Amino acid sequence: MPSLPISLIVFVVFIVVTGFLWRYLARQIQMPCPVWLRFFLDNPIAASLVDKQIERAGLTSGMRVLDVGCGTGRIAIPAAMEVGSSGQVTALDIQPKMLNIVAKRSEERNLKNIRTVLVGMGEGAFGEKDAFDRAFLSTVLGEIPKREKALREIFAALTSGGVLSVTEALIDPHYQSRRKVRRLAAAAGFAFMREYRSFFYFTMNFAKPPGN
What we know:
The chain has six helices and seven strands; from the N terminus they run ααβαβαββαβαββ. By secondary structure, the chain is an alpha/beta fold. It has one domain: Vaccinia Virus protein VP39 (Rossmann fold), CATH 3.40.50. Helices cover about 35% and strands about 25% of the residues.
């Protein structure tokens, strides 16, 4: 049986150790995924999950989309392509370097319908009302210190009947349980729509009830 290259073994060990370190630190402090760990966000598995999230959220041409905690743009970029030039994606993050990556990738793909916003949800700084048809929280809810306030801000930012898609992955250091996500969303005024689940992750869609 051929032996594995030393470089590959070192790389695998680095990934495992880094993952455990990130998980430990995340449990001690509210810590978003740092830019130097962005390879955890940019991988084929995450890409395949994003395609399902976008499909299940029902994005169509002309929609206005809010991507909270956009990171490297793994949702913002394909969402912008889905809604087309008549739609718009607002990519929101608290890390300027992440937003710079999104802006660069948008430029490389000649996408003119993405705007980046440097702000944290739940701090009262994002005051847009009835402005979005869809909102995404993809493996980011647990990174937000004031989760209840953040969800209320997202609720206010969505149009009547708008949809919030929340995805949580078991390997995420900030993983939030299905029960907790449903409780937090309900407290913010959202109505549960549907859940998609596998062993490693789940996606829940919630609606802002008509008339709100």
